[in-house]
Each structure stands twice: as structure tokens, then as C-alpha cells.
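Section 5.1 Outputs to date
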Amino acid sequence: MSRAQAILVLSLAIAGSFAARADAPSHRTMTPPRAITLCQPHAPGTGEPDGSAQHILAAAARHLDDRPHPLAHVHTEGTLPHQGIRDESIAAERDWPLMRQAALAWRLSADARYLQQVDDYLKAWTGTYQPDFNPIDETNLDGLIDAYVLTSAGLPAATREATRAWLRRLGEGYIQRIQAFHDPKPGTATNNWQSHRVKLVTLAAAALGDPAMLKTARELFERQVGDNIRPDGEVIDFTERDALHYVVYDLQPLVTAALAARPFGDDWLRYASPRGASLAEALDWLRPYAEGSKTHEEFVHTHVKFDRDRAQAGEKGYGGPWDPKSATALYWLAAALDPDYRAVAQRLSPAPPDWIGACSYGQ
């Protein structure tokens, strides 16, 4: 049995042993099971929570009475403020990181009120939202997926199965759309759009513990490394957009995918394409800019009109010098893959974003 299969068997065994007592979560304290997840929050009763964990618990308490605001569709890609359904989409999408926050709070505190909140939100969203398979609109679904993974063994069986069916539709739908691309591939089949597709497929596969989908996700990841990253580490989005904003936007989903795959025994960070390109090389290419030894004026020579439209509309970050702090989450996630990135992460921020810092990634 492979390591990935062993992890899957253990995960299912844990979930099955807990399901019988999880079908009707109450507001009494329940001890979360030890589950195989990407994020392993500190267990209750193991000492005082660190700063990130304290912040998560405080923020989760403030939102404990919030209610979900699911939409059948969201759309923000290619829109300026107040266009179309952009504003209501942004408002609804705030549910997704809130779900992850509640899930982390449950794992940190064992307070079943947070489990109930995740259950309510998952039922609302998976029962309402219809994936459009636009990866820019849907990339932030990682908050919903993380929330499911963190709480799956404690959820009622009906919520768990409905969420798994929804995740399978999401992952398989993205795979079908990727496989429909033919050479010569359109730009969105190799630029940051594809990085976000790969992330969503990988997260769905890891959440489901599906070896076949994980195998496909790895193939798609490797293809994207070869298509998107040059041997020196520069990504094609930088050539097209002349913006480090899009380098970060391209690499963070690939780092997230690599983290999701790691519990199944894979090291995607150092995979090298036949030309020698790798995610590690791309992170190293960006590193001097993140550390401040190099600077860059954003979008000066972009080939995309929408970038100029956003600058004209006054959207922050679409002109002027690149702000290295916008790579904070990227390098803290990268540091979970390789501690060599911790120095640059700490240079950007002494502490990671709370949702990253509340987790132990096995370093």
C-alpha cells in the first residue's frame, strides 16, 4: 500500500468511527477527532494557543451569530467596481474564509457551536451554488474546501455526503474543461487562470482523498509548470502583464496545490519540467523583489487593456511600485513546503496571516 493510500484509509477510518456520534452536533463541547488534513491546528488542552490561534478564536467568536449568504453564481472577473453582480459577489464570498475561520476555531477550541456554523454554511452553499468553472471567480472557494476538510469527520453524514458530491462535481468539471483545450492553447490555458484551475482540482482531489483525481491533478500541475514557468523562473504572466502582482497571483495557487498534495506523499515544489522549470525556481526568481533588493514599476508595459482600465478607475495596486508585502501569504505558504523560505516570509511579516499561523504544516 502506498503512503497516499494509507493516509486515505486512515482518514476514512477516522471519519467512519466518528460519524455515528456526529450526526446531530449540539452546542456542548465536543472533542474534535484527530484527522489527516493539510492544516493540523494545535489540539485543545495542549497549552496556551499562539497569537494566530488567539486571533482566530477571537474573530470567530465575533462572527458566531453570522448567517450564510449563498448565491447561485458569483462573478467578479473582468469587472470594475459596481459593475454587474461584482459587489454582491464580493459580499457573498466573505462567507468562504469565514467558514475556514469557524472550522479552525472548532479544531482549536472543541466548541461545537463552530461545528454547527460550518455545517450551516456548507449546507447553504453546496445546496445553492452552481459552479461556473471560471477559476478567477471561484479561486477563493479554497476557504470552503478547507472548512470541509477541517471538519469532515465531525459533520452530519448528510452534510458530509452532499459536500463530497459537490466537490466531486467541482473537481471533475474543471478537469473536463482543461481536457477540452487543444493546441494551440488559448492564453488562459497556460497563464494564471490555469494555475487557479490546478489549485481547485488538487484541493477537491485532496479533500475527497481520490487517488485517481490526485493523479490527474499532478499531471495538470506538471503541465502547468512546463507551460507557464521558464527555466530561469520567470512566469509568462510577467511577460504579458509586466506586473509582479500577477507573478504572485500565478504562484500562490500552485504553492497551495503543492501543499494539498504533500500529505499524500508528493513533493511538487521541486518537480522540474523537461526544460528545467520548477515552482521552486519561480519562487526564487521573485525572491529578490520580495526581499527588496530589486524593485518594479507595475503594469507599465502590460498588453492587457483591462489593467489600464483598473488603473484609471483608481484600483489599488495597478500602477506604481510593487508592494512586496502583497507576497506575504505566498512566502509563508512556501515556508510550509521548505523552511528556506521562512526568512523572506518573516521579512515581509514577522508573523504569518492568522489562517496560516493557526496551522501546523509539519515543519
